Amino acid sequence: MLNLNDLLVFVQVVDHGGFAAAGRALGIPKSTLSKRLSELEKAIGVRLVQRTSRSFAVTEVGRDFHRHAAAMLIEAEAAEQVIKGRLAEPSGTVRITASLPIAQFRLAPLLPRLAASHPKVRIMLDVSDRFVDIVQEGFDIAIRNHFAPLPDTELVQRRIYYDPAWLVASADYIKEKGMPSRPEEANGLDGLMASSSDRVWTLHDGQGAAAEIEPSPRYFANETVSLREAARAGLGVACLASSFCAPLIESGALVRILPDWTARGVATTLLMPHRRGQLPSVRVVADHLIAELSQRPPGADLINAR
């Protein structure tokens, strides 16, 4: 691969008609320019310029080479301007990966507003519940919900939200079974479980106390909407993220059980491959998502304050 700087020297020397004039234009000694041109000729194996102490002439192959070298420098400058333009104004494609619940309930209303406010930014959202290697698959941003802490990797991690879980049931179910006032009174209630291996809900009261509730498993679903709808139908008690069930509590479709107690919740974390060298478009989208997703969804605070 030829040295681009040597091509620049050659083009400048030819355009200025000699080493002295090119040296004055570039602020480089003509002896240095002559040496660089000699290195270029050695690298390509042909003489580009015939020069003596009194004459300077471009060879035939030198004229052909000059035409292509000048075009290469124009393209190199254009490439540099593309980067400068991207750094000056957010533009280009930002690839985001997120799970289905995040995409449906959090990103769906946010990303169109973001795209509208930055018309030169193209957003590509890939919705998948599988494990995604964001570096290998070329994603700029990943947003993940998780119970346990994420492994310590070279990825940039920004934890932006924590959503505690609440025990909820329909008003009809509570009317039939009664409202427990203490955790132990909730033992044996019909449990709407996320997994067949789940047997216990561990609750905390915010004062350091913990309690375990052993429901009677009645219904299993590893998908949140299914559990919510089962609770609405009066099948039993579900343990759901507070932001997810708060609007239904506000409307009266669900009732929160043991309001002073919460279960282990879900953390939302934004991940990016690199801290340095991020394009403005990626930074703008990441900052917007962090600001928006860190806010508690409407209705959740109202319910929590009751």
Number of discrete helical segments: 10
What kind of sheet is the major sheet?
Answer: 11 strands, mixed
Question: Could you please say which CATH topology of the largest domain applies here?
Answer: D-Maltodextrin-Binding Protein, domain 2
Ends: how far apart?
70 Å
CATH class of the largest domain: Alpha Beta
Which structural class is indicated by helix and strand composition? Answer: alpha/beta
Secondary-structure element pattern, one letter each: HHHEEHEHEEEHEEEEHEHEEHH
CATH superfamily of the largest domain: Periplasmic binding protein-like II
| Total count of domains | 3
Low-pLDDT residue intervals, each spanning 5 or more residues: 299-306
Number of DSSP E strands = 13
Based on the structure given, which CATH architecture of the largest domain is correct?
3-Layer(aba) Sandwich
State the share of residues found in helices, binned by percent.
40-55%
Oligomer: single chain
Radius of gyration (Å): 33 Å
Instruction: Output mean pLDDT.
Output: 88
Strand content: 15-25%
